[in-house]
Amino acid sequence: MEDLSTEAARRRAIAWATALAANTPLEPQAYERALLDEYAVGTLSLEQVLRLLDGRIKHVLYRSRATQAFEEEQISELLEESRAWNERHGITGLLCYSDRQFVQLLEGNSDPVDLLYSRIQRDTRHRQVTTLSTAHGAQRFFADWQMGFVTVDEGEFHWVLTSLDHPSYNASLIEQYVRDPHLRTLLEAFSKA
Description:
Elements: H1 7-21, H2 30-40, H3 46-54, E1 57-66, H4 72-89, E2 92-98, E3 101-108, H5 110-122, E4 126-137, E5 148-151, H6 154-165, H7 171-177, H8 181-190
Parallel strand pairs: 2-5
Antiparallel strand pairs: 1-3, 1-4, 2-3
Helix pairs in contact: 1-2, 2-3, 6-7
């Protein structure tokens, strides 16, 4: 086994491991690559990298279409049910709704987020569930909300969907047409993903 006390040795080990994992589910994501870079230059120890990986936050961003328009009372019931479940399982996030369309970000530990997203995909109140992004990171974007909620007019929602569906879309147009600060946070985090 090679001594990993030098930067060159750590870089070789990382290059070997990432090449081995390339094009597999084990291929490092951006957050994991950043931690490996910190390890390679000696900023983080292997133990620190492992601790940070254990504490990472999974983000799942998806969109879907409601099978029928949601009335205000139905939205309230959905939010009440979601917030209670999310609080018990340590999940936070943001739900956006406009004209029978949803965009939602779920964030938390992998197992509860995966379990919830599986339930969401089977929920008959909506269809065309499309995953826009699945990633891990160091932080939550909506840590204060078990489930934040934003209703958006159709025009603004169009720009949200356009930005999420086409990440290279002109950011200045998004800034001009998307006013809600929560949606801007969402777009800043995920339109680059």
